[in-house]
Specification:
heterodimer, A: alpha+beta, FAD/NAD(P)-binding domain, eight-stranded mixed beta sheet, 18 strands, 26% strand, B: 303 residues, mainly alpha, 14 helices, 0% strand, EC 4.1.1.130 (chain B), membrane (chain B), Ubiquinone biosynthesis protein COQ4, mitochondrial (chain B), zinc (chain B)
Chain lengths: 463, 303
């Protein structure tokens, strides 16, 4: 008898309307957006995160670290508009964000280039800044409301099962608690436990490439407007994206063995290597890669020789066709991550929804990954608002289906486009290089088509 | 008759109409030109008028390196046509060979050679130092004191036997990229070392055999054209000897031997030439002068 009562008591005290797994940008945005909406703010929401986030994120805002962190993403105007509409954007540390108007991409083999211009075409923000801003907004919302969003940090989900009576998802947490909910939302990344629980298949492939990231400072040789640079090398694109005060965030997608080589260099060698990567021909680069792999002691000297030759040949008028050289690296900012394409067969099951990386991962070449997740959140919140105002059970497939049917096709198109761009550029086969360069030259001179593309990547023409 | 008359009439009327129309418009055209140049509101002073600031009708782009003559593609094409016919008709004229070589040294060919050099330590050193071979830089006078059978001594003896000098090499003029121009210059200057190491003489037959060897090894188009067309106008006995002895040798050795463009000849002058040959993977072909002598004496005996 006692046992029955106790079990009853536990299950009552730990029932939530929505449980969000994962305190990354997607999870925090979803929590904030739901609490911000007048329709859904009364819902009882738990956010479960495996790591510690509250203390580090608060201290990020109170005493920002002196250096830029290496996990930086580019936000589209559409994403920023959404963050602003839920009241979070003003909580960001604005001094650490950098918006820019101009993106230049150039072909590493033929040099064919493309310019995308649009006011505030993208904004670079550290992911920690995003999380901290959202958490700050969430605290503000919590202080104004009776039903508060509960963040359970440093808590791992040990198992997910269906409740035997209600068929609702029931979580066992590492602190011994159990949690039952009407709707379980997985914002828990690529290896999403929620997706596994729901039995949703995710399909795709590894690109067999790694993204090497690091934070640099540009050499202070001349004034430049902040510009996003991307050079398509046959091994993968090398992007230098602007941060405030002449700093820049690099993502160099490359083969696993080259990524390993890049991480094994010392910092001055790595700097030279990045400068070589933005300028030198693929033949010169392959020589330099070989020297670096064999740990040649005169690597720096050889790179400098080729860079000097390059600078000697460059006409003053063409100098602005290349990014400035980087001259300083933020110590310890080097890291790498694997690149893969994956797309879940569906985003929703009965009482389960997937958001962000749990549903899809993509190549970072157009900086769309996080923005797609933000669009997911926007759409899911809309679906939940409609369901709530119509008196539907928010865990019901009927309530969730609109989210899936709106987002899946759009994400699928974007994933496909990124995949094709990656494939077109990952060869140096001469006829293909000629064809893609011709295509780029034509596109670059067709204003309206380019404007359409800019609209797509900056998320303006979606609605 | 009538038509002719009418035509004549019209041929008088139409041009006069056009010219009167133009003279009517020309005032406007001149005015527009003046406005564009800003002379309408800010007329030129006497001093400015005295300065001749107009650009010449045709101007070549700036040279990329000393001695460079930038050519347009159609000029390169004309040069190729002229020099290829000239070289076929009169192969002993060095001007034709030189221009044929430069007009067919396409960037992708030289780029491939440069890539080969970049990926080899000594090739890289050559690219970095950009050495030029002259009789002075090679210290010809010292070479004769080198040990017998050393590369330096053999080179010296070969120069003496053939009566040539390393100073007769023409500088590259028409290749756009300075580094690629150096690569081609380097090929040109090393040509005599290829003679030395293979022992082929500078008679027409020897040059043809060496051209095929070079083409197989370096892939320079001019050498391939030479190997293809040069044997056509020569004596049939010579052609037979080329095809039966020297072409098979050139194909085999040119393909298997290491890229000769990467050899820093100046630095290995003291090396034994036989050792060098085996390092590079070249077999010495039969002595061409000997074979020719034998053939000639045989012919005499028959006669």
């Amino acid at each position: 008898m006692f046992q029955v009562i106790r079990r009853f008591a536990t299950s009552v005290s730990n029932v939530a309307d929505i449980v969000i797994i994962g305190g990354g940008p997607a999870g925090l945005t979803l929590g904030t957006a739901l609490k911000n909406s007048p329709v859904t703010k009364h819902l009882k929401i738990h956010l479960v995160e495996g790591g510690k986030i509250i203390e580090p994120l608060n201290s990020f805002l109170e005493t920002p670290p002196p250096n830029y962190l290496n996990r930086v993403v580019s936000l589209t105007p559409s994403t920023i508009g959404f963050l602003d509409s839920i009241g979070a954007w003003s909580h960001f540390n604005q001094e650490r964000t950098q918006s820019y108007d101009d993106i230049v991409t150039y072909d590493g083999v033929s040099g064919a280039r493309m310019n995308f211009e649009h006011p505030d075409i993208a904004t670079m923000v550290e992911t920690t800044n995003i999380q901290a801003g959202l958490l700050s907004r969430l605290n503000e919302l919590n202080s104004q409301q009776e039903v508060k969003l509960v963040i359970q940090e440093d808590t791992k989900v040990t198992s997910i099962a269906k409740d035997s009576i209600t068929q609702w998802p029931t979580l066992k947490l590492s602190n011994g608690d159990s949690l039952t909910c009407r709707l379980l939302v997985g914002c828990d990344g690529y290896n999403s436990p929620v997706r596994h629980f729901a039995g949703i298949e995710s399909r795709g492939w590894s690109y067999n490439r790694w993204g090497v990231v690091a934070t640099f400072k540009f050499a202070d040789t001349e004034f430049r407007f902040p510009t996003g640079w991307q050079r398509f090398l046959p091994t993968g694109p090398l992007a230098l994206l602007p941060l405030p005060n002449g700093y820049t965030s690099m993502v160099w997608s490359t083969t696993p063995e080259l990524a390993e080589m890049l991480l094994s260099l010392d910092e001055t060698e790595f700097l030279s290597m990045v400068n070589a990567g933005t300028r030198l021909s693929t033949e010169e680069l392959s020589m330099i890669y070989d020297l670096a792999k064999s740990k040649s002691p005169d690597l720096l000297e050889q790179i400098q020789w080729r860079l000097n030759l390059f600078a000697g040949k460059l006409k003053p008028a063409d100098e602005e066709n290349f990014p400035l050289q980087v001259s300083e690296i933020v110590t310890g900012s080097r890291a790498r991550f694997p690149l893969k394409l994956s797309h879940a067969d569906t985003y929703v099951e009965d009482r389960v929804a997937l958001v962000g990386d749990a549903a899809h991962t993509t190549h970072p070449l157009a900086g769309q990954g996080l923005n797609m997740g933000q669009e997911d959140v926007k759409s899911l919140v809309g679906a939940l608002e409609r369901a709530t105002s119509r008196g539907l059970d928010i865990g019901n497939s009927l309530a969730l289906e609109p989210y899936f049917s709106e987002r899946w096709p759009q994400n699928h198109v974007l994933l496909g486009v990124m995949d094709k761009i990656h494939k077109i550029y990952s060869t140096d086969f001469a006829p293909l290089v000629a064809a893609r360069s011709f295509g780029v030259d034509v596109l670059n001179s067709l204003g309206p088509i380019k404007d359409f593309m800019v609209g797509r990547i900056s998320g303006n023409s979606k609605r | 008759m009538l038509i002719v008359q009418q035509f004549q009439k019209r041929s008088f009327i139409i041009p006069s109409l056009i010219s009167s129309g133009l003279s009517y418009l020309s005032k406007d055209i001149r005015l527009a030109d003046k406005m564009e140049d800003g002379e309408l509101h800010f007329p030129k002073t006497e001093f400015e008028k005295s300065q001749n600031t107009s650009r010449p009708l045709f101007q070549r782009p700036e040279p990329n390196y000393p001695g460079h003559v930038p050519l347009y593609n159609f000029e390169k094409l004309l040069m190729f046509l002229g020099s290829s016919i000239g070289a076929f008709v009169n192969p002993t004229n060095n001007n034709f060979i030189v221009s044929l070589g430069e007009s067919t040294a396409f960037p992708w060919v030289l780029n491939r050679l440069r890539t080969q050099m970049l990926n080899d330590p000594s090739g890289r050193q050559i690219l970095k130092e950009r050495p030029h071979m002259t009789s002075k830089s090679l210290n010809l006078d010292e070479l004769k004191n080198y040990p017998d059978n050393s590369l330096g001594k053999s080179y010296f003896l070969w120069l003496e036997r053939e009566g040539v000098s390393p100073d007769t090499r023409v500088p590259v003029k028409y290749i756009t990229d300075p580094e690629l121009a150096f690569v081609f210059q380097r090929y040109r200057e090393c040509h005599d070392f290829y003679h030395t190491i293979t022992g082929l003489p500078i008679v027409r037959e020897g040059e043809i055999a060496l051209k095929l060897f070079e083409f197989m090894n370096l892939g320079i188009p001019m050498t391939g054209l030479g190997a293809l067309f040069a044997p056509i106008p020569i004596k049939s006995s010579q052609r037979r000897r080329l095809l039966s002895v020297y072409y098979p040798w050139a194909v085999k050795n040119g393909t298997i031997c290491k890229p000769l463009i990467n050899v820093y000849w100046e630095k290995i002058m003291k090396k034994d030439i036989d050792v060098l040959r085996s390092e590079l993977g070249i077999e010495k072909p039969p002595d061409m002068r000997e074979l020719r002598k034998k053939a000639r004496s045989k012919k005499k005996q028959v006669a």
